[in-house]
Amino acid sequence: MGNTHPGATAPFGMVSACAYSGAYPTGYGLYTKNTEGVPETMFDRIQASGFTHFQQSGTGAIRKYYNYVRVTPMVQPLDDLGQSWALHDETAEAGYYAATLDTGIRSEITVGDKVAVHRYTFPASSSARVVLDLSCGGLATELGRTVPLRAQIESMGHGRAQGTIVMEGVPLSVYVEVDSPGWRQMLWYDRRLIDGGTRLDFDSIRHTNLRPFGMLFRGSARAGQTIEVRMGFSLRGTDQARENLRRECNGESSAFTTVRAKTRAKWREHFEKIQVDGGTSARRTVLGTALYHALIKPCFADDESPFWPNSGPYAFDVSTMWDIYKTQIPLLAAIAPDRAADLLESLIRVCEEEGNFPIGYRMARGADRFFRQASALAHTALADAHALGRAPIDWAWALVHMVDDLRRMYGEDFYEHGVVHPITHTLDLAYGYHCTARVARALGDRRLAADLEERSRGWVNAFDPVTGLLRDSEYYEGGKWNYSFRLLHDMRGRIDLAGGDTAFIGKLDRFFGYGAEPVKQPGRRPPTAEMQAGYALKRFEGLNNEPDMEAPWAYHYAGRPDRTAQVVHSALTWQFGTGPGGLPGNDDSGGLSSWYVWASLGLFPVAGQHLFLVNTPAFERAALQMPEGEFVIETSGHRETPIGVDGLDREPPALFVQSATLNGKPLHATHLSAADVHRGGRLHLRLGPEPSSWGNGIRPPSLSDSPPSEAAR
């Protein structure tokens, strides 16, 4: 239920490709749109009407579903285009997807960064064809369709074609090569062939006048004959699309094997950045799958921005920044630092061109930058990147944008009144001020840093001192309990506001259900009353939603890392699995999968604070290939725990850290600086089945640890 898809992708690649049924939310699969309870199915079988390009990964209802340029291999008449056929013998590997249609056509797809290569093996047929539909877009759900605004397609002769469609204000160009000797090549419109035509132009397309259009290649096929379709994509015209195809396919007439091997090698290079020892086969499979999902997005289309002419990184599908800033961007900074820097450079450029740091960013022009969800999230990643000192960014210029962005949108009310509703934006903005202050201080602007840090103390205005929780307000996908345990820059002050360690731990225990009865999960079409009764419990939603992702680590700040260990262990053991329902909620562009990776390693990044929290890992040993050296997390006393298996009749797991050393020296704190991790080293954790006093006394740093005058220095 993670809303991912099994299609072919490259690490952070611009292009993906997958079987298309029109189902929610990626275009693959069975399900219709659903936000509560068990989802309902649209179809009674896995099926496809062809294979489309550009898919989201792990998102929910973001109203952007891509699925452009559908390719359909057929042995039926063109009138049957759009019909769906059952899929059999599906195979999914990193960079590769294959399935056999009911028609007997074996379909294989691989992708590079900006190309897709299809290979179709036909049964014997006197009328085989490969049909390209450039009018396709979106989903087959209500309000899910995307219609091109303008389009042009042109036959270039000899198995060559090119076209451009403008989707949501973005010109997407494709250059196509089809190896089909002896087959005819024809344009078509409204499922009717245009004999002898070489070009179609559509200047103004609306939902009411859209008719499908595209190009087809047809002829006779002998049994087992293979047709290869090579497609280069660009956001800067067909010439660049052709060049992208030439560069990645090396000008070869048969490029499928070459492209697949290159993409597989790229995946292997990324996977090798994290190595683990121990763990059951299922647990290792889930970790590998999580790492794979964590490296699909954002999409990087270098030198492809349709909105500014300069070369350089252009990133889109930053669609759930409110998730990925906590877990995924720190993961990229650790094992793909060049891409992490490219993402920040791209976000700065978006801010320069459009006036705001985006909270989310899609391949689309115009509004819907997700400002309702959150504020000032790019500031956290920028602060961490500056502290690490590796990103080649003009930091003086970045600071200008960071400061200016704090005054935009909800930021104006926060600047004037110190509080803004929805109340979570108060937390966002206060945190953004703190992160920006860190950069200003490091750049030597002490006066600016002092002013920013003082405003960052406005987080306190979001809380009710009577309840120790956030004030009543509107909340995005959650309630005040979900958001009340975020890891702020002043957790000492936040715990004091709640009444101290004991009171704060009591609230956390209530949230996580210690001593409470099990929760009844909603089924299909849950009535409103059932959902409201569940929300009224004010309980942890089990990583079903992003506000809860960091809450287990709040115990660290109250001196109870043993509680963190219990909650995280339960989530890793019971909420993730190897089947199609192996994720507990939307993967949100890799945010949830990145959570799993970090939690399995026994680390959690506190985004914006240059900090990692330490917890019990799920594996006996792990090694991360960091930019400056290998960071090893090793254990003694580790005990394997199968996932999804009741352990009551087993030896109790060694959940709790008894003692720790970093590079051979005792580590009494439950945290490390990000620099300690990134430069490489060896963290040794001695584990046991009972809680210990480790980490009870030394808390992770907070703004209140120093007086305001010192914190501003």
Automatic annotation (TrEMBL):
It is an enzyme of class 3 (hydrolase). InterPro entries: 6-hairpin_glycosidase_sf, GH-type_carb-bd, GH92_a_mannosidase_put, GH92_N, Glyco_hydro_92, PNGase. It comes from the Bacteria. The keyword Hydrolase applies. Residues 240-688 form the Glycosyl hydrolase family domain. One of its GO terms (molecular function) is hydrolase activity, acting on glycosyl bonds. Keywords: Glycosidase, Hydrolase. The keyword Cytoplasm does not apply. Its EC number is 3.2.1.-. Residues 684-713 are annotated as: Disordered. This is GH92 family glycosyl hydrolase.
